[in-house]
Structures are given as structure tokens and as C-alpha cells.
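pinging the channel bc i need a second pair of eyes. not urgent but kinda urgent?? the chain im working w is below, pasted from the shared doc
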Amino acid sequence: MSTNQGGGNAKINRIYEAQKLPSLRSDAGAQLEPRIHCSRLTSMANFVEVSSSQQFEDLLKKAGKSLSVAHFYASWAPQCAQMNDVMAELAKDLPHVTFIKLEAEGVPEVSEKYEISSVPTFLFFKSCEKVDKLDGAHAPELTKKVQKLAPSVAGPARGADPPKEDLNDRLKKLINAAPCMLFMKGSTQEPRCGFSRQIVQILKDHNIKYSSFDILSDEEVRQGLKTYSNWPTYPQVYVGGELLGGLDIIKELAESGELETTCPKALTLEHRLKSVINRSPVMLFMKGDKEVAKCGFSRQIIEVINSTGVDYDTFDILEDEEVRQGLKTYSNWPTYPQLYVKGELIGGLDIIKELKESGDLQSVLKGEN
């Protein structure tokens, strides 16, 4: 796949072709630096973010027979951020439990190994073996499972539990946890009734983006939602906080072609890349960000761009392996950093240097050429 790489004038095209030779430096062999997170959520010794399968395995081995809880999350999902807050509180009360968070798309080999297909998903480990699983943003159920699997340290945590939330408030939060929410029996990986299995397949076939909640894991939600929505059966699908219906309605919408326009569609990688590239008129894909560059080439290019005074945004390709690998194919440009202006690839460090030396860089960054 390719896009218009030349920017807009003959000089850029000439430089682009000159630099797009096998002599280009490839990042394939570069050493990835560990991601450093300084938020309050990662300040505790027993609450750790990992960015590689090796880190993950090492933490499980270190925990041994003690409980480890792994949260597979996505940075774009607000319910994941909320559940990270829950994890942080649990980590304070349960110092002998190891809490781990992994960006699902950032550690694809781990996500594939454990068949992670939706976020948030929680896996529970003892002696490096998975002993339980929880799908969805369900703080009480997460707390319950942690206390059950780590009984020796569960006592203090119970004393710190907040007052029980009103059921209707809780149901409203669950319904609005994602733009499209499916309440079903079982998980998307393991549906536990035929109707749930059918509706998961339909949503998958039509590339619908959604989160799910297992009503078998919470009898209070299972019974309360029937009254709240005045809909006596499951599965139930909600869009924008409003009940859409059950299996029969989803089937009808799919047959009429209305399902795609009613429910949010999952972005393909191509659409996602286009969206990120066009996030700002000037977008730089690099290792690190404009405050902290994580390789020499990235450090040099931000120094050159900063000297022009032109505003720009950055994307850290170390934080997203899907974008890092996909953009190479999309742009037909195998190395980083990569600079885009108004959605079009300008090039890497060598091209930017040449444009700087020729006096054309500022006008190119402003989209005047």
C-alpha cells in the first residue's frame, strides 16, 4: 500500500526518491527502550506496566504462588482508565498481590497467546498458570475475584470497600461503558448460550466495535437490567446508552443493511493510520516524543523542526506496535522517523536535513509547496 509520498514539489520528489534506497537505516534491529510511566498509577512496587512478553513472564515467575492480576487495556477506551484506577486502589490494600497492566495492542504476542479480543480483560495467575478470567469493566466483580483468590490478604481490603453503589446508577454506568455494549451469557471468546453465540458472530461479521458484560458473573445486574430496560431476555445490545434490542432485532438490522449505520464500526488498520496521520497538519512519527526522544535520529529531527518555529504533533511508535509496523507498509517507507504534512509523507531525517539546507523546509511544513 502506498500514498502520495512526494509532498508537493519536484525537489521533494527528487529527494524522496534519492533517499528511498537500500542504504536507508532500518529500525528493525534497534534496541527497544523500556517504556517509562510516571503516573500515580505506576508508582507502587506491586502495580507495574509491561511492554514486552519477557517482562510479563518475568513478573509472573517472580510472583510465584502469589496472585498476579493482568489487565489488558486500550488507551482509547475510557473504561480501561477507570479500571486502572480500581487496580491502583486494590494494589494499595493488597501489597502481596502483583497487579500488571498491558496495552493489548502493544504486546500482541501475549494477547494472542491468551486470546484477548476485547478490552478491558483481566487474567488471574498463580505459579505462572492462568486460574481465572474476567471480561468487562466491572469493579465489584474484579474486587470479588481478587479477594477470593488472595484470601490471606483479603481482610483489610474489605474494610476499605466503599459504600455499595445504587443499582440503577451502576447499571447506567455499565450501559454507557462503551458506545456499543453487549450484555450476554459468557464472554465473546466463550459464549455460554446459543443466542449469545449467534449475536457475537453477527457483530464480528459486520465489523462492529463493542464491549461486553457477562451477566452470569453478576446476578444483581442480570436481574436488575431486565427491569431497568423493560426487556426480559438476553442478550441485550445498547448503543449510546439506549437499548437497541436482542438477537432478533440485530438479525433484522443486519439483513436490512442498517446494522453498520446503527452501531459503531471497528476501525481497520488503514483507517486508523489515516486518522492518526491527519491528527495534526504536521505529524511526526518517531521513537519517543518531542519532550523525550528515544533514539538519535528522532532527537535530530525534532531539533531541526523546532528550529523552524512551526507547530507539530508527534506519535511515539514504541507505544503502538500495530502502527509501527503498519505505517511502514502504508507509506512504503521502512524506517523512522517519518514526517507527514497535511496527510502526505515528506520523508525521514535525511530529507528534512536537505530541505533545511535548501531553505525549503519552513514552506513545506506550512504546506505552501
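so The mean pLDDT is 82. and The two ends are 24 Å apart (CA to CA). — does that match what u expected or am i reading it wrong
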